[in-house]
Amino acid sequence: MATYEVETVYYNNNGGIKTKEFDLFDNKKQAVNHMRSKLNSYHGLVKQGDVKDGIVKLVDERGILKQVIKFGEV
Q1: Strands (DSSP E) along the chain, which ranges?
Q2: What's the predicted TM-score (pTM) here?
Q3: In 3-state terms, what secondary structure has residue 3?
Q4: Edge to edge, what strands does the sheet with 4-11 contain?
Q5: Average pLDDT over the chain, rounded to whole?
Q6: Which pLDDT value is given to residue 26?
Q7: Which of 3, 4, 44, 53 is the most buried (most CB within 10 A)?
Q8: Distance between CA atoms of 37 and 50, rounded to whole angstroms?
């Protein structure tokens, strides 16, 4: 039985990693729904990428990377 992971990496203004979060799920549907709900909760950030690709980058209006949300199988 596979386990699915949603990893969220937060970046500071200097480009360094601020914090990381890992969420584990029993099936792919739960993980994808969680990833979509996280993406819908952020306002003011531009989304680059798509959930179906497995990685979404969130940048601010100046193009500075703020967050990366990844989906994968453990």
Answers
A1: 4-11, 17-25, 46-50, 55-59, 65-73
A2: 0.88
A3: coil
A4: 17-25, 4-11, 65-73, 55-59, 46-50
A5: 93
A6: 95
A7: 4
A8: 13
Beta bridge mates, 74:
none
pLDDT on residue 15: 86
Phi, psi of 38, rounded to the nearest 5 degrees: -65, -40
Q: What angle do CA 4, 43, 73 make, to 5 degrees?
A: 10
Mean pLDDT of 33-58: 92
Q: Which is nearest to 60 in space by CA: 74, 41, 47, 73?
A: 47
| CB-CB contact of 56 with 50 (8 Å) | yes
What's the pLDDT at 42? 85
Please report, for the chain, the start and end positions of each structural domain, with discontinuous segments joined by +. Answer: 4-73
Tell me the average pLDDT across 19-46: 93
